[in-house]
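Hi there,

I know you've been waiting on this one. I reran it after we fixed the sequence typo, so this is the corrected version. Both the input and the resulting structure follow.
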Amino acid sequence: MDNFLRFDVFPKIGIGPIKLGMDRAESRIAMNSKFNEYKKTEDSKKKTDAYLDNSLQIFFDIDNKVDFVEISYNPKIYKLFFNNIDLFETNGDELIKELTRLTNFEDLGKDPFGYFFPELGLTLWRPVIPENFSDEESEDEFRKGKYFMIAGIGTHKYLF
């Protein structure tokens, strides 16, 4: 049996042990792991905590409460599920169909690589659109277009 962490997405609540609205100290206790603290951008008001080889990032609001959790594909460390659907190992088009069956989604408009499910507070992103794949790209790049590579869940304030 594979040895990996399992994180479940709980709509409008959190991912795994991290709950939206939790304060920074609580999130660090919940993760119980080494982390890096850094400013994601020059304009960031608060520092981001990054765990698990920087593939799980926790963003905080001005009151130091968890505002958004972003998790990137890292199958050697963890798997990410919503309703027992593996968000990173399910074909992207199939995943969108299944999530759309459960709820509405919004195309992120300016970002053709991303999808937003407001009823869940869930975002999905892939760096390549499958139909834009070139034969000169590696198979790994093709995989990136067929599957989502980043998922996030955030507060209403963060997402809207």
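Quick highlight: The chain is about 20% helix and 30% strand.

Best,
R. S.
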